[in-house]
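Narrative of activities, Objective 1.

The group set out to show that a structural description can be obtained from nothing but a protein's sequence at a throughput compatible with the screening campaign. Below is one input-output pair from the validation batch, recorded exactly as produced.
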Amino acid sequence: MDGLLSLPLWLIGVIVVAFGLLLSSAGAILTDRSLSPITLSDSNVVGGFNCSFLEPLLAVILFFLLPLLAATFAAFQSEKSLHADTHGLWAPEWTLDNFRVILSGGEQRGKVFEQATYLPDNIKKIHFALINSTVIAVSVTLLTRIFASLTAYTAVRLRSRWVVWLMGVNVFARFVPIIVLMIPLYVVFRRMGMLNSIWGVIIAETGFLLPYGILILAPYFATIPQELDDAARIDGCSRFTVFLRITLPLSTPALASYGAIVFVIAWNDLLIPLILNNRAEFMTLPVMIVSLVGDVFAFFNLTMAICLIALAPTVILVLLLRKFVVEGLSAGAVKG
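Output recorded for this entry:
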């Protein structure tokens, strides 16, 4: 265990270099030269991109990729191989047994686990965790998009004082740490009989993520001209029909970006499912990953393999919707 806690020399070197580049980029940004307008005659500009920010950008990307690289190397190794050389980068032996054990629910152990006397019981219910995470993430995404779009449209089109006041309260409520609300949330859901249920987690996460949707969608709806609504109302459309047939189709980038953000948060959320559900049948993937770390022994390889499995849907979703995510988050940032 002590060897696992010590960082390899190559990893320490990469971290030092990354932090050095970050500090140097911060100093460059604070100088007047780096803040001057970019011109085509600048030698640092190539294809409209300022190359002076290339090194800091690569440093940030490398810094955030380090945990993913460590998880990938550990997921394709055996426990014995991981403990044998804690300072080496390339493993002497690669295996898929970790994924084989997880996806088969512990029935197919392979060569690595064929002599193992103990495997966590939660591994046998990994399929429940996959289904639960999918149902919760999809349901929360759909519900928050529906309610957030209706609320944001109402807040933008009804320019009343009480609406502005509620928006301010909404922003202030986001500064309250979620951990402070966990005990009241647990007491309320216990009285409602919604502990150890999927719907309890869906309702709780929808309530916590809904204000973020209002803050993201309201500026975007404000960029849609009021004249379009007035023209549709003159043609006989109701206000809800205008919202359904005009506002929503024009807000596809904002809805896609908000949906991607909510899906990632709901998929990776640990605190709410951990507090509300304590039965293995209702565990999500983050809760199952935590359960693999025991008081005596931690299954590092199985944990890293589950982390890669849990990471795959969010990475695919962000790659598919990256264009809409950028458009949706930047469209309402400026006016005019």
